[in-house]
Protein backbone atom coordinates (compact mmCIF):
# COMPACT_ATOMS: atom_id res chain seq x y z
CA UNK A 1 0.00 0.00 0.00
CA UNK A 2 1.59 3.34 -0.88
CA UNK A 3 1.27 6.91 0.26
CA UNK A 4 1.11 7.47 -3.44
CA UNK A 5 1.99 5.78 -6.67
CA UNK A 6 2.45 7.41 -10.05
CA UNK A 7 1.32 10.12 -10.76
CA UNK A 8 1.99 10.98 -7.10
CA UNK A 9 5.45 12.50 -6.64
CA UNK A 10 7.85 11.49 -3.85
CA UNK A 11 11.08 9.64 -3.15
CA UNK A 12 9.56 6.49 -1.65
CA UNK A 13 6.79 6.46 -4.24
CA UNK A 14 9.35 6.52 -7.03
CA UNK A 15 11.53 3.89 -5.35
CA UNK A 16 8.65 1.42 -4.97
CA UNK A 17 7.52 2.08 -8.53
CA UNK A 18 10.93 1.46 -10.08
CA UNK A 19 11.67 -1.61 -7.97
CA UNK A 20 8.24 -3.05 -8.80
CA UNK A 21 8.72 -2.40 -12.52
CA UNK A 22 12.19 -3.98 -12.46
CA UNK A 23 10.89 -7.09 -10.67
CA UNK A 24 8.32 -7.53 -13.44
CA UNK A 25 10.73 -6.78 -16.29
CA UNK A 26 13.83 -8.61 -15.05
CA UNK A 27 12.33 -11.64 -13.35
CA UNK A 28 8.73 -11.94 -14.53
CA UNK A 29 7.50 -11.56 -10.96
CA UNK A 30 3.86 -10.75 -10.26
CA UNK A 31 3.69 -7.51 -8.30
CA UNK A 32 0.62 -5.84 -6.83
CA UNK A 33 0.92 -2.45 -5.16
CA UNK A 34 -1.75 -1.27 -2.73
CA UNK A 35 -1.76 2.50 -2.35
CA UNK A 36 -3.97 5.43 -1.38
CA UNK A 37 -5.87 7.73 -3.70
CA UNK A 38 -3.87 10.73 -2.39
CA UNK A 39 -1.31 12.83 -4.23
CA UNK A 40 0.69 13.51 -1.06
CA UNK A 41 0.68 12.85 2.67
CA UNK A 42 -1.03 16.13 3.51
CA UNK A 43 -4.23 14.66 2.09
CA UNK A 44 -4.23 12.03 4.85
CA UNK A 45 -5.52 14.70 7.23
CA UNK A 46 -6.85 17.39 4.85
CA UNK A 47 -10.22 16.37 3.37
CA UNK A 48 -10.39 19.23 0.86
CA UNK A 49 -7.28 18.23 -1.10
CA UNK A 50 -7.80 16.54 -4.49
CA UNK A 51 -7.91 12.76 -4.85
CA UNK A 52 -7.34 10.21 -7.58
CA UNK A 53 -9.97 7.65 -8.61
CA UNK A 54 -10.06 4.53 -6.46
CA UNK A 55 -9.91 0.98 -7.76
CA UNK A 56 -7.63 -1.13 -9.93
CA UNK A 57 -5.31 -0.23 -12.81
CA UNK A 58 -2.16 -1.58 -14.41
CA UNK A 59 1.02 0.43 -14.96
CA UNK A 60 4.08 -1.00 -16.72
CA UNK A 61 3.09 -4.53 -15.78
CA UNK A 62 2.41 -3.67 -12.12
CA UNK A 63 -1.13 -4.09 -10.78
CA UNK A 64 -2.11 -1.07 -8.67
CA UNK A 65 -5.09 -0.72 -6.35
CA UNK A 66 -5.90 2.69 -4.85
CA UNK A 67 -7.85 2.86 -1.59
CA UNK A 68 -9.89 5.80 -0.25
CA UNK A 69 -8.58 7.49 2.90
CA UNK A 70 -10.70 8.73 5.83
CA UNK A 71 -8.84 11.99 6.31
CA UNK A 72 -11.47 13.30 8.74
CA UNK A 73 -10.31 10.77 11.34
CA UNK A 74 -6.67 11.85 11.08
CA UNK A 75 -7.69 15.50 11.13
CA UNK A 76 -9.58 14.99 14.39
CA UNK A 77 -6.65 13.05 15.87
CA UNK A 78 -4.27 15.90 15.04
CA UNK A 79 -6.31 18.23 17.23
CA UNK A 80 -6.01 16.06 20.35
CA UNK A 81 -2.58 14.50 19.88
CA UNK A 82 -0.65 17.75 20.36
CA UNK A 83 -1.35 18.17 24.09
CA UNK A 84 -1.02 14.42 24.64
CA UNK A 85 2.40 14.47 22.97
CA UNK A 86 3.44 17.70 24.70
CA UNK A 87 2.69 16.27 28.15
CA UNK A 88 4.01 12.81 27.21
CA UNK A 89 0.74 11.20 28.21
CA UNK A 90 0.57 7.38 28.05
CA UNK A 91 -0.65 6.16 24.69
CA UNK A 92 0.09 9.39 22.82
CA UNK A 93 2.00 7.37 20.21
CA UNK A 94 -1.30 5.82 19.10
CA UNK A 95 -2.90 9.23 18.72
CA UNK A 96 0.08 10.31 16.64
CA UNK A 97 -0.31 7.17 14.52
CA UNK A 98 -3.92 8.07 13.79
CA UNK A 99 -2.87 11.65 13.08
CA UNK A 100 -0.23 10.45 10.60
CA UNK A 101 -2.65 8.15 8.80
CA UNK A 102 -3.57 6.89 6.34
CA UNK A 103 -6.79 5.61 7.91
CA UNK A 104 -8.14 3.00 5.49
CA UNK A 105 -11.01 0.80 6.71
CA UNK A 106 -10.69 -2.80 5.58
CA UNK A 107 -7.06 -2.50 4.46
CA UNK A 108 -5.77 -5.37 6.60
CA UNK A 109 -8.51 -7.67 5.30
CA UNK A 110 -7.78 -6.66 1.70
CA UNK A 111 -4.09 -7.45 2.15
CA UNK A 112 -4.97 -10.77 3.76
CA UNK A 113 -7.18 -11.73 0.79
CA UNK A 114 -4.63 -10.74 -1.84
CA UNK A 115 -2.64 -13.73 -3.21
CA UNK A 116 0.99 -13.11 -2.34
CA UNK A 117 4.05 -15.07 -1.29
CA UNK A 118 5.64 -12.01 0.32
CA UNK A 119 4.08 -8.88 1.79
CA UNK A 120 6.35 -5.84 1.60
CA UNK A 121 5.56 -2.50 3.22
CA UNK A 122 7.18 0.94 3.30
CA UNK A 123 7.39 3.24 5.17
CA UNK A 124 7.08 4.33 8.81
CA UNK A 125 5.47 6.04 10.66
CA UNK A 126 2.39 5.44 8.50
CA UNK A 127 -0.45 3.18 9.63
CA UNK A 128 -0.46 0.79 6.70
CA UNK A 129 2.80 -0.68 8.04
CA UNK A 130 0.85 -2.13 10.98
CA UNK A 131 -1.90 -3.41 8.67
CA UNK A 132 0.64 -5.20 6.48
CA UNK A 133 2.39 -6.80 9.44
CA UNK A 134 -0.85 -8.01 11.01
CA UNK A 135 -2.12 -9.41 7.72
CA UNK A 136 1.11 -11.29 7.14
CA UNK A 137 1.07 -12.85 10.58
CA UNK A 138 -2.61 -13.70 10.29
CA UNK A 139 -2.11 -15.54 6.99
CA UNK A 140 1.29 -17.08 7.75
CA UNK A 141 3.15 -15.15 5.05
CA UNK A 142 6.53 -13.41 5.47
CA UNK A 143 6.53 -9.64 5.88
CA UNK A 144 9.39 -7.38 4.75
CA UNK A 145 9.36 -3.83 6.09
CA UNK A 146 11.33 -0.94 4.58
CA UNK A 147 11.23 1.80 7.17
CA UNK A 148 12.62 4.95 5.62
CA UNK A 149 13.27 6.30 9.11
CA UNK A 150 13.93 9.95 9.97
CA UNK A 151 15.23 9.56 13.54
CA UNK A 152 15.58 13.31 14.21
CA UNK A 153 11.81 13.63 13.88
CA UNK A 154 10.73 12.61 17.39
CA UNK A 155 7.04 13.30 16.72
CA UNK A 156 7.03 10.90 13.81
CA UNK A 157 9.54 8.28 14.88
CA UNK A 158 9.74 8.47 18.65
CA UNK A 159 7.18 5.68 18.89
CA UNK A 160 8.02 2.30 20.51
CA UNK A 161 5.32 0.68 18.35
CA UNK A 162 7.54 1.24 15.29
CA UNK A 163 10.48 -0.66 16.72
CA UNK A 164 8.27 -3.49 18.01
CA UNK A 165 6.95 -3.88 14.46
CA UNK A 166 10.49 -4.02 13.08
CA UNK A 167 11.39 -6.70 15.62
CA UNK A 168 8.36 -8.76 14.54
CA UNK A 169 9.04 -8.50 10.79
CA UNK A 170 10.72 -11.35 8.90
CA UNK A 171 13.15 -8.87 7.33
CA UNK A 172 13.88 -5.17 7.45
CA UNK A 173 15.32 -3.12 4.58
CA UNK A 174 17.47 -0.16 5.56
CA UNK A 175 18.61 2.36 2.98
CA UNK A 176 21.90 3.23 4.73
CA UNK A 177 24.25 1.88 7.40
CA UNK A 178 23.04 4.75 9.57
CA UNK A 179 19.48 3.41 9.51
CA UNK A 180 20.61 -0.19 10.03
CA UNK A 181 22.64 0.73 13.10
CA UNK A 182 19.72 2.77 14.43
CA UNK A 183 17.15 -0.03 14.32
CA UNK A 184 19.60 -2.64 15.60
CA UNK A 185 20.30 -0.41 18.60
CA UNK A 186 16.53 -0.48 19.23
CA UNK A 187 16.16 -4.22 19.28
CA UNK A 188 16.12 -5.36 15.64
CA UNK A 189 17.82 -8.69 14.92
CA UNK A 190 21.00 -7.85 12.94
CA UNK A 191 20.50 -11.02 10.89
CA UNK A 192 17.19 -9.66 9.61
CA UNK A 193 18.42 -6.16 8.74
CA UNK A 194 19.58 -5.65 5.15
CA UNK A 195 21.14 -2.50 3.65
CA UNK A 196 19.82 -2.02 0.13
CA UNK A 197 19.89 1.67 -0.85
CA UNK A 198 17.96 3.26 -3.67
CA UNK A 199 18.62 4.10 -7.31
CA UNK A 200 18.42 6.35 -10.33
CA UNK A 201 18.09 5.96 -14.12
CA UNK A 202 21.08 7.56 -15.85
CA UNK A 203 19.96 7.41 -19.47
CA UNK A 204 17.02 9.89 -19.38
CA UNK A 205 19.23 12.58 -17.82
CA UNK A 206 21.74 12.18 -20.64
CA UNK A 207 19.05 12.63 -23.30
CA UNK A 208 19.01 16.43 -22.92
CA UNK A 209 21.89 18.88 -22.67
CA UNK A 210 22.18 21.52 -19.99
CA UNK A 211 22.00 24.23 -22.65
CA UNK A 212 18.78 22.83 -24.11
CA UNK A 213 17.24 22.44 -20.66
CA UNK A 214 18.05 26.03 -19.69
CA UNK A 215 16.63 27.27 -22.98
CA UNK A 216 13.43 25.27 -22.50
CA UNK A 217 12.92 26.84 -19.06
CA UNK A 218 14.04 30.29 -20.26
CA UNK A 219 16.82 30.47 -17.67
CA UNK A 220 19.44 31.98 -19.93
CA UNK A 221 23.12 31.38 -19.25
CA UNK A 222 23.20 32.47 -15.59
CA UNK A 223 24.14 29.91 -12.91
CA UNK A 224 21.09 28.21 -11.44
CA UNK A 225 20.61 26.92 -7.90
CA UNK A 226 17.93 24.25 -7.79
CA UNK A 227 15.66 22.71 -5.21
CA UNK A 228 13.78 19.79 -6.79
CA UNK A 229 11.86 17.58 -4.43
CA UNK A 230 9.13 17.45 -1.84
CA UNK A 231 7.96 20.86 -0.62
CA UNK A 232 7.84 20.84 3.16
CA UNK A 233 9.42 22.62 6.11
CA UNK A 234 11.51 19.58 7.03
CA UNK A 235 13.13 19.63 3.58
CA UNK A 236 14.91 22.89 4.38
CA UNK A 237 13.23 25.14 1.84
CA UNK A 238 12.89 27.88 4.46
CA UNK A 239 16.66 27.75 5.01
CA UNK A 240 17.30 28.05 1.29
CA UNK A 241 14.99 31.05 1.04
CA UNK A 242 16.84 32.77 3.90
CA UNK A 243 20.16 31.97 2.24
CA UNK A 244 19.37 33.36 -1.20
CA UNK A 245 19.63 37.11 -0.41
CA UNK A 246 23.12 36.41 0.94
CA UNK A 247 24.00 34.42 -2.20
CA UNK A 248 22.85 37.30 -4.40
CA UNK A 249 25.20 39.71 -2.62
CA UNK A 250 28.13 37.63 -3.94
CA UNK A 251 26.63 36.22 -7.16
CA UNK A 252 23.92 38.70 -8.23
CA UNK A 253 23.27 36.95 -11.55
CA UNK A 254 22.35 33.60 -9.93
CA UNK A 255 18.87 32.20 -10.49
CA UNK A 256 16.77 30.00 -8.19
CA UNK A 257 14.60 27.14 -9.48
CA UNK A 258 12.16 25.47 -7.06
CA UNK A 259 10.18 22.50 -8.37
CA UNK A 260 7.94 19.91 -6.73
CA UNK A 261 4.39 18.84 -6.09
CA UNK A 262 2.31 21.70 -4.73
CA UNK A 263 1.53 21.31 -1.01
CA UNK A 264 0.04 23.48 1.72
CA UNK A 265 3.62 24.50 2.53
CA UNK A 266 3.89 26.04 -0.94
CA UNK A 267 1.80 28.94 0.37
CA UNK A 268 4.60 29.81 2.79
CA UNK A 269 7.18 29.61 0.00
CA UNK A 270 5.20 31.97 -2.21
CA UNK A 271 4.60 34.44 0.62
CA UNK A 272 8.30 34.52 1.48
CA UNK A 273 9.27 35.17 -2.13
CA UNK A 274 6.66 37.95 -2.42
CA UNK A 275 8.33 39.70 0.53
CA UNK A 276 11.54 40.12 -1.47
CA UNK A 277 12.38 43.11 -3.68
CA UNK A 278 11.00 42.81 -7.20
CA UNK A 279 14.49 42.40 -8.67
CA UNK A 280 15.04 39.28 -6.55
CA UNK A 281 11.58 37.88 -7.24
CA UNK A 282 12.35 38.00 -10.95
CA UNK A 283 15.28 35.63 -10.39
CA UNK A 284 13.05 32.86 -9.02
CA UNK A 285 11.10 30.26 -10.97
CA UNK A 286 8.50 28.05 -9.25
CA UNK A 287 7.32 24.91 -11.04
CA UNK A 288 4.55 22.79 -9.54
CA UNK A 289 3.20 19.31 -10.27
CA UNK A 290 5.47 18.60 -13.19
CA UNK A 291 5.16 15.38 -15.16
CA UNK A 292 7.77 12.78 -14.36
CA UNK A 293 9.45 13.07 -17.77
CA UNK A 294 9.92 16.80 -17.15
CA UNK A 295 12.13 16.08 -14.15
CA UNK A 296 15.15 15.29 -16.32
CA UNK A 297 15.15 18.74 -17.90
CA UNK A 298 14.70 20.37 -14.49
CA UNK A 299 17.82 18.74 -13.10
CA UNK A 300 19.81 19.37 -16.28
CA UNK A 301 18.91 23.06 -16.12
CA UNK A 302 20.51 23.67 -12.71
CA UNK A 303 24.18 24.01 -11.79
CA UNK A 304 24.01 22.95 -8.13
CA UNK A 305 21.38 21.14 -6.08
CA UNK A 306 20.53 22.79 -2.76
CA UNK A 307 18.67 20.20 -0.71
CA UNK A 308 19.23 21.17 2.95
CA UNK A 309 16.74 18.64 4.31
CA UNK A 310 16.59 17.72 7.96
CA UNK A 311 14.79 14.39 7.57
CA UNK A 312 16.06 11.98 4.95
CA UNK A 313 16.21 8.20 5.01
CA UNK A 314 18.37 8.50 1.89
CA UNK A 315 17.65 11.39 -0.49
CA UNK A 316 16.97 10.38 -4.10
CA UNK A 317 17.34 14.01 -5.19
CA UNK A 318 21.08 13.76 -4.54
CA UNK A 319 21.33 10.78 -6.88
CA UNK A 320 19.34 12.57 -9.57
CA UNK A 321 21.65 15.59 -9.39
CA UNK A 322 24.70 13.33 -9.58
CA UNK A 323 23.17 11.64 -12.63
CA UNK A 324 23.68 15.03 -14.30
CA UNK A 325 27.21 15.42 -12.94
CA UNK A 326 26.14 18.17 -10.51
CA UNK A 327 27.49 18.99 -7.06
CA UNK A 328 25.03 18.87 -4.17
CA UNK A 329 24.63 20.63 -0.84
CA UNK A 330 22.98 18.72 2.02
CA UNK A 331 23.04 18.76 5.80
CA UNK A 332 24.95 17.03 8.56
CA UNK A 333 21.75 15.31 9.65
CA UNK A 334 20.18 11.88 9.62
CA UNK A 335 21.29 9.54 6.84
CA UNK A 336 22.58 12.27 4.52
CA UNK A 337 26.27 12.06 5.61
CA UNK A 338 26.11 8.35 4.74
CA UNK A 339 25.05 9.28 1.18
CA UNK A 340 26.92 12.53 0.46
CA UNK A 341 30.68 12.36 1.01
CA UNK A 342 31.54 15.88 2.14
CA UNK A 343 34.28 17.42 0.02
CA UNK A 344 34.26 14.54 -2.46
CA UNK A 345 30.89 14.68 -4.24
CA UNK A 346 29.14 17.52 -2.42
CA UNK A 347 29.13 19.79 0.60
CA UNK A 348 27.35 19.45 3.94
CA UNK A 349 26.20 22.24 6.26
CA UNK A 350 24.43 22.42 9.60
CA UNK A 351 20.67 22.00 9.43
CA UNK A 352 18.74 25.30 9.29
CA UNK A 353 21.98 27.32 9.13
CA UNK A 354 21.23 29.76 6.31
CA UNK A 355 24.64 31.48 6.35
CA UNK A 356 26.52 28.19 6.05
CA UNK A 357 24.25 27.20 3.18
CA UNK A 358 24.80 30.52 1.44
CA UNK A 359 28.58 30.20 1.86
CA UNK A 360 28.54 26.68 0.38
CA UNK A 361 26.47 27.77 -2.62
CA UNK A 362 28.66 30.80 -3.28
CA UNK A 363 31.76 28.61 -3.00
CA UNK A 364 30.46 26.22 -5.65
CA UNK A 365 29.19 28.93 -8.00
CA UNK A 366 32.48 30.81 -7.71
CA UNK A 367 34.59 27.70 -8.37
CA UNK A 368 32.96 25.93 -11.33
CA UNK A 369 36.00 23.73 -11.93
CA UNK A 370 35.86 22.30 -8.42
CA UNK A 371 32.08 21.99 -8.66
CA UNK A 372 32.55 19.91 -11.79
CA UNK A 373 35.00 17.60 -9.99
CA UNK A 374 32.49 17.03 -7.18
CA UNK A 375 29.71 16.34 -9.66
CA UNK A 376 31.86 13.88 -11.60
CA UNK A 377 32.58 11.95 -8.39
CA UNK A 378 28.86 11.82 -7.68
CA UNK A 379 28.16 10.54 -11.19
CA UNK A 380 30.67 7.74 -10.72
CA UNK A 381 29.01 6.80 -7.43
CA UNK A 382 25.53 6.42 -8.91
CA UNK A 383 26.80 4.66 -12.02
CA UNK A 384 28.47 1.91 -9.99
CA UNK A 385 26.34 1.65 -6.85
CA UNK A 386 22.87 3.15 -7.30
CA UNK A 387 21.33 1.97 -10.57
CA UNK A 388 17.79 0.54 -10.52
CA UNK A 389 18.53 -2.93 -11.95
CA UNK A 390 21.03 -3.52 -9.15
CA UNK A 391 18.78 -2.04 -6.45
CA UNK A 392 15.90 -4.25 -7.62
CA UNK A 393 18.12 -7.33 -7.41
CA UNK A 394 19.00 -6.40 -3.83
CA UNK A 395 15.33 -5.99 -2.92
CA UNK A 396 14.51 -9.30 -4.56
CA UNK A 397 17.26 -11.10 -2.67
CA UNK A 398 15.68 -9.96 0.61
CA UNK A 399 12.24 -11.06 -0.59
CA UNK A 400 13.64 -14.41 -1.73
CA UNK A 401 15.21 -15.10 1.64
CA UNK A 402 11.94 -14.21 3.36
CA UNK A 403 9.86 -16.60 1.25
CA UNK A 404 12.42 -19.34 0.62
CA UNK A 405 10.37 -21.85 2.60
CA UNK A 406 7.50 -21.62 0.11
CA UNK A 407 9.55 -23.17 -2.71
CA UNK A 408 7.81 -21.08 -5.39
CA UNK A 409 9.56 -19.89 -8.53
CA UNK A 410 7.74 -16.56 -8.85
CA UNK A 411 6.78 -13.86 -6.43
CA UNK A 412 3.18 -12.91 -5.96
CA UNK A 413 4.28 -9.75 -4.21
CA UNK A 414 1.85 -7.50 -2.42
CA UNK A 415 3.65 -4.21 -1.85
CA UNK A 416 2.19 -2.08 0.90
CA UNK A 417 4.36 1.00 0.68
CA UNK A 418 4.44 4.54 1.99
Shape: globular
What's the gyration radius in Å? 21 Å
Number of helical segments? 18
Physical arrangement of strands within the biggest beta sheet: 2-3-1-14-4-5-6-7
Oligomer: single chain
Blueprint of the fold:
Layout: H1 11-27, E1 30-36, E2 55-59, E3 62-67, H2 71-86, H3 92-100, H4 107-113, E4 118-121, H5 128-139, E5 143-146, H6 154-157, H7 160-168, E6 171-174, H8 177-185, E7 193-195, H9 203-206, H10 210-216, E8 224-228, H11 237-250, E9 255-260, H12 266-274, H13 278-281, E10 284-288, H14 295-300, E11 304-306, H15 316-322, E12 328-331, E13 346-349, H16 354-366, H17 368-385, H18 388-403, E14 412-416
Parallel strand pairs: 1-3, 1-14, 4-5, 4-14, 5-6, 6-7, 8-9, 8-11, 9-10, 11-12, 12-13
Antiparallel strand pairs: 2-3
Helix pairs in contact: 1-18, 2-3, 4-5, 11-16
Describe the protein:
The chain has 418 residues and is an alpha/beta fold. It has two domains: 11-199 and 387-416, Glycogen Phosphorylase B (Rossmann fold), CATH 3.40.50.2000; 203-385, Rossmann fold. The chain has 18 helices and 14 strands. It has helices spanning 11-27, 71-86, 92-100, 107-113, 128-139, 154-157, 160-168, 177-185, 203-206, 210-216, 237-250, 266-274, 278-281, 295-300, 316-322, 354-366, 368-385, 388-403; strands at residues 30-36, 55-59, 62-67, 118-121, 143-146, 171-174, 193-195, 224-228, 255-260, 284-288, 304-306, 328-331, 346-349, 412-416. An eight-stranded mixed sheet has the order 2-3-1-14-4-5-6-7, sandwiched between helices. Helix 1 packs across helix 18, helix 2 runs antiparallel to helix 3 and helix 4 (107-113) packs across helix 5 (128-139). The chain is globular. The N and C termini lie close together (7 Å).
